[in-house]
Amino acid sequence: MPIRSSSARWEGNLVEGSGTVKTGKGGLQGAYSFKSRFEEGEGTNPEELIAAAHAGCFSMAFSKGLADAGFTPTSVETVAKVHLDKTDAGFGVSRIDLETVGDVPGIDDAKFQELAQGAKENCPISRLLSPGAEISLVAKLS
């Protein structure tokens, strides 16, 4: 399997500095700063990138699980919300909320929920993040 990489460059101090992040093949590139991470400033931040990775991984895993069960999804749309919290030990990701909507002809809600839970538990990014963060899931059929 290929090894994936991304890079980041930061210039200046924590509060007044700024940086850029870039995925290895250049598909995504963005500016980030203290304000984009800890306030509501312009740009991206590491937690948004984790959310994008988790949403993408979950959507693919869910689509595969649906297809393996005999249901071809028209679409699976997922939003991941990463919670960055400050504790006495410092900042940390405590929770990720996955919200997914699937357009899946011929499936009932019970089977849809079962396969969504399976994807949540087994997508590689969920497996990576679940020891350190609680992961919730709300799955809806469109």
Automatic annotation (TrEMBL):
Xref: InterPro entries: KH_dom-like_a/b, OsmC/Ohr_fam, OsmC/Ohrsf, OsmC_Ohr_Peroxiredoxin, Peroxiredoxin_OsmC
User: A single Pfam family, by name?
Assistant: OsmC
Specify the superkingdom. Bacteria
Matching PANTHER family: OSMOTICALLY INDUCIBLE FAMILY PROTEIN (PTHR42830)
The protein here is known as OsmC family protein
* Organism name: Actinoplanes flavus
